[in-house]
Amino acid sequence: MVYKEEEPLEHDRELIKHVVNEMEAAFNRHDADALDSHFTQNATWVNVMGEKLSGWDEINKVHKIVLTGPLLNSYSKYTVDSISFINSNVAVVHVRQYSTTSDGKRIGGGQESIAIYVMVKEMKVWRLAAGQNTLLKSVQLDIVS
Q1: What does pLDDT average to in each consecutive run of 10 residues of the chain (145 residues)?
Q2: Which of 43, 115, 39 is nearest to 80 (CA)?
Q3: Is 96:111 a contact under the CB 8 Å cutoff?
Q4: Which residues does 15 contact at the CB level (< 8 Å), separation at least 6?
Q5: Exposure string (b/e) for 5-19, b if CB count within 10 Å is 16 or more?
Q6: What are the helix (H) ranges across the chain?
Q7: Which stretches does DSSP call E strand in 36-89?
Q8: How many whole angstroms separate alpha carbon 71 and alpha carbon 119?
Q9: Distance between the two ends of the chain, CA-based, in angstroms?
Q10: Cβ-Cβ contacts under 8 Å for 90 (sequence gap 6 or more)
Q11: Model pTM?
Q12: Contact (Cβ atoms closer than 8 angstroms) between residue 44 and residue 123
């Protein structure tokens, strides 16, 4: 059941979008600490490789390795597709990520993914408590008539 409140939660929507923008900027700076500052201490994350990471320390350790190693020359644009509130302190957020050049131009045929973030509001601050990032692949369908 999706939370319904008489007054729109537009302020919270904007705060969540701001968090996503900060995560994008941190990813593009390859700054694991800044990226992970938006995770709760007991967060769970499943990355595009299907690897489950539990807790801030493990998430941060892996992000430090990949952002200074295999993803050192990777850049992305994050776009919020949707935000649904479960209650006033929990939101489900769908985020699309597109490969870009270092100056933010989208790379045609580049890697794309969609992530689901379960975000919680702790002391008026939105943080990611759980999420999964999934690579998107182009699918060729053979239609048989």
Answers
A1: 62 96 98 98 95 97 96 95 95 96 89 95 96 79 48
A2: 115
A3: no
A4: 126
A5: eeeebeebeebbbeb
A6: 10-29, 32-36, 56-68
A7: 39-46, 52-54, 75-87
A8: 25
A9: 40
A10: 3, 118, 119, 120, 121
A11: 0.88
A12: no
The reported pLDDT for the residue numbered 80 is 98
Q: What are residue 131's phi and psi, to 5 degrees?
A: -170, 165
Q: Which fold would CATH assign to domain 10-136?
A: Nuclear Transport Factor 2; Chain: A, (3.10.450)
Q: What are the phi and psi torsion angles at 45 (to 5°)?
A: -135, 135
Two tokens at 38?
Answer: 């938006």
- Is 48 in contact with 124 (CB distance < 8 Å)? no
Strand partners, 76: 99
The answer to whether 34 and 22 have CB atoms below 8 angstroms apart is yes
CA distance 20 to 5: 23
Tell me the CA distances in angstroms from 107 to 9, 59, 96, 102, one per residue in order: 34, 27, 14, 10
